[in-house]
């Protein structure tokens, strides 16, 4: 088991590496690789969108007859995830990018279009300068002038930032001139006058008199708050309530209502009718409540 971990192998003295047969591969041989799409694209067959970074099992080959400064260009084959149509794209070493070749269209990318447009303008400018020396001189003069303006602007920004770092808020307030203060005070007074005029035009009493503005320290007088029309109204005269005395008989009558009156004895009634003073031998006793009841009835009848 120890011989599996050795670093150096034994080569006999008569070993010839050229004698080892090599496997011959065709130039257009393809290899299976695992990759992610370098850009978002749209399938031309079914219209499916394939976003950037989607993983595929692809086939890779070398493009024959195309090179960029001794750099080989590779082509990749993938299939649409919806319709399985073949899509091919290849590398672009010149722009460090990829180019959609067949089966799909690359989606619009604004930043890419701007870069391509800028490179085309730069290339046209270089060609023009090569053919026209005066144009090249003018372009260099404009470039130098633009650089000087940029440097001046940067110096101004640095100076302003350094000055602002050294100045405090109190120093800025102290730098205000008397004229600026006068302008501020005049503006404040004018605004206050406008507010007063607006208040006078809006607030009025029912009699048409303007309401006086009360100071915060003074308290309003309650008598002054009453209008003349309210003060002229006369209040009715009030007198003490008159109490009437109730008759004493009413108390007895009220008490007699609750007590059942007892009729007098037949013999007593007969003696009264005859005018005699004889009283019955056996007279039933009359209770006090019955007497009160009879007295009440007699008094009422006499009246």
What report would you give on this structure?
The protein has 303 residues and is of the alpha+beta class. β4 and β5 (71-79) form a beta hairpin. The strands form two sheets. A five-stranded antiparallel beta sheet has the order 1-4-5-6-7, with no helix packed on it. It is elongated, with a radius of gyration of 63 Å. It is built from nine helices and eight strands. Among the domains are: 31-107, no CATH class; 117-166.
Topology of helices and strands:
Blueprint (H helix, E strand, L loop, with lengths): L30 E6 L4 E3 L5 E2 L4 E14 L2 E9 L6 E7 L4 E6 L1 E3 L3 H22 L1 H34 L2 H6 L3 H25 L19 H4 L2 H5 L15 H11 L7 H9 L13 H15 L1
Antiparallel strand pairs: 1-4, 2-3, 2-8, 4-5, 5-6, 6-7
Helix pairs in contact: 1-2, 7-9
Main beta-sheet annotation: 5 strands, antiparallel
End-to-end distance:
152 Å
Query: SS-based structural class?
Result: alpha+beta
Number of strands: 8
**Per DSSP, what share of the residues sits in E-state strands of 2 or more residues?**
15-25%
Round the mean pLDDT to the nearest integer and report it.
75
Percent of residues in helices comes to 40-55%
Which stretches are poorly predicted, pLDDT < 50 over at least 5 residues?
250-261, 276-281, 295-303
Coarse morphology = elongated
Per DSSP, the total helix count is: 9
- Quaternary state of the chains: single chain
Strand order of the largest sheet: 1-4-5-6-7
Radius of gyration: 63 Å
Q: Could you give the order of the helices and strands?
A: EEEEEEEEHHHHHHHHH
């Amino acid at each position: 088991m120890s011989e599996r971990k050795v670093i150096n192998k034994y080569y006999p003295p008569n070993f010839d590496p050229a004698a080892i047969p090599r496997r011959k591969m065709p130039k257009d041989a393809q290899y299976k690789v695992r990759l992610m799409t370098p850009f978002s694209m749209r399938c031309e067959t079914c219209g499916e969108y394939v976003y950037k970074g989607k993983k595929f099992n692809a086939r890779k080959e070398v493009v024959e007859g195309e090179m960029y400064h001794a750099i080989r260009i590779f082509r990749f084959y993938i299939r649409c995830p919806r319709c399985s149509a073949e899509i091919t794209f290849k590398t672009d070493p010149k722009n460090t990018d990829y180019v959609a070749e067949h089966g799909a269209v690359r989606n619009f990318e604004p930043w890419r279009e701007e870069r391509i447009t800028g490179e085309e303008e730069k290339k046209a400018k270089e060609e023009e300068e090569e053919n026209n020396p005066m144009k090249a001189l003018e372009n260099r003069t404009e470039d130098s002038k633009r650089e000087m303006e940029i440097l001046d602007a940067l110096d101004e920004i640095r100076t302003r930032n350094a000055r602002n770092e050294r100045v405090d808020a109190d120093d800025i307030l102290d730098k205000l001139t008397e004229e600026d203060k006068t302008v501020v005070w005049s503006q404040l007074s004018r605004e206050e006058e406008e507010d007063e005029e607006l208040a006078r035009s809006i607030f009025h009493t029912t009699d048409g008199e303007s309401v006086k503005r009360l100071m915060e320290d003074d308290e309003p007088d309650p008598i002054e708050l009453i209008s003349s029309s309210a003060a002229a109204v006369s209040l009715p005269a009030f007198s003490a309530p008159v109490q009437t005395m109730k008759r004493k008989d009413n108390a007895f009558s009220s008490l007699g209502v609750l007590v059942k009156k007892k009729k007098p004895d037949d013999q007593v009634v007969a003696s009264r009718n005859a005018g005699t003073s004889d009283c019955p031998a056996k007279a039933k006793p009359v209770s006090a409540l019955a007497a009160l009841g009879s007295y009440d009835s007699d008094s009422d009848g006499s009246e």
